[in-house]
Amino acid sequence: MTTDQPPVEHLDVLIVGAGISGIGAGRYLTTELPSKTFAILEARGASGGTWDLFRYPGIRSDSDLHTFGYEFKPWRDEESIASAPRILRYLREAATENGLDDRIRYHHKLVAAAWSSAEARWLVDVERTDTGERIQLSAGWLFCAAGYYRYDEGFTPHFEGRERFTGQIVHPQHWPEDLDHTGRRVLVIGSGATAVTLVPAMAGTAAHVTMLQRTPSYILPVPAKDALANRLRRIFGEQRGYALTRRKNILKGTAVWRLCQRYPKAARRLIRWVNTQQLPAGYPVDEHFNPPYDPWDQRLCAVPGGDLFRAIRSGDAEIVTDRIATFTEKGVLLESGRELQADVIVTATGLNVHAMGGVGFTVDGEPVALRDTIAYKGMMLSGVPNLAFAIGYTNSSWTLKIGLLCEHFCRLLKHMDAHGYDICRPELADPDMPTRPFLNFGAGYIRRAVDQLPRQGDRMPWLTSMSYHADVKLLRADSVTDPELHFAHSADHRIGAPS
């Protein structure tokens, strides 16, 4: 006797990830294509992505929330550089206001996705992370909004003698709820945004905090509150005041980035001068605040209100630039011979990149190797049908690009509906086109994973733009059609001519 299998639930779109990108994508689908069926799969038990996962002291944005926030939802807080709890509240408000709470399926982890051209659908395998159960869903489109790093594992390099240390070692990605650093000596290893956030946040109650860096980063003080933004909101109201502030901050951010790109020596001198003004007289600025690379070859670290510099001036924190020879029972021994003693060591050493959430994709039975694909308009992959992904800017606020990508995605689906297409696949016209890394960025976590990621070309539409103004033209103003984007009907099982 045979038992009939229940039918596989089918959705028009499956969004993967309920963080800032996934919630944004859900909102655009709800407002632009209200007849579409969709769900948001979230592997964890809560929404918010990064802003719910990280719980270390002082966690905050390193971009202003007038550009890091959504274009459709004003940021109403007085502080423009915001803490994680405030950002999380904002994201969850956006989900609730747009009717997304019931569309998020928690503890649903996408593990594999198989595309069938004959059926014009993705058949996906989903693991229930709370029960271990495996289920299947099908979807016309996948929208990957799972970010770019592993949520279950941060990056920690090998440290000689680590097992000898008798104190506590923690990674910021897995911060223990019961960790009390009051009155204890803390050593933070790292020099990126996480480290410069942790140091001042812990310095107020710790006995002393030391930030040990192998290589300095560019660090700039920024106002915690945007006085002009708050004034504009009072004068013009929330919606218009927010729009004006957003435009102002986009222009300001673009100007700073262009200055650093065109005049790196002048930008370096300016940043050094600002650092000198923030530090005690005679401080060795060139030892601890003089990176070997140009500004914006890696992301600049923003410190609201100059809190890191304030902690250094007060003597509650210090920066040491050196390399670790080995861990000891009481701390770390440096190559210079100095020993830094600590009760708690924090390895703020970065992330592990995990493209597309580590999902295994196949297209008509053939595995997809991401490193062999080329990104189309920074949102689709060559040879892979009906798959979009959300990767934001590395030189500006992440969400600025996400909004444009979501708009373009909705316009693409409308075009397909209008012409009766159910398959859309980017295909290279020139297979010999030169390529380069998808994220041409000097950060260590990107360099470690560059061979696992898609690539980009040397011309549009295969060039991944990092310019908001260029993307406004490409993704908002230009047509969704392109000679290298092919549409088809599943009924005839072949890729049709571009429309």
From TrEMBL:
Coiled-coil intervals, chain numbering: none
Keywords carried by this UniProt record: FAD, Flavoprotein, Monooxygenase, NADP, Oxidoreductase
Residue stretches spanning the membrane: none
Cofactors demanded by this protein: FAD
Pfam families, sorted: FMO-like (PF00743), NAD_binding_8 (PF13450)
Record's protein name: Cation diffusion facilitator CzcD-associated flavoprotein CzcO
Molecular function (Gene Ontology), one example: flavin adenine dinucleotide binding
PANTHER family: MONOOXYGENASE, PUTATIVE (AFU_ORTHOLOGUE AFUA_8G02570)-RELATED
Superkingdom as given in the UniProt entry: Bacteria
Organism from which the protein derives: Actinoplanes lutulentus
Family recorded in the similarity comment: Belongs to the FAD-binding monooxygenase family.
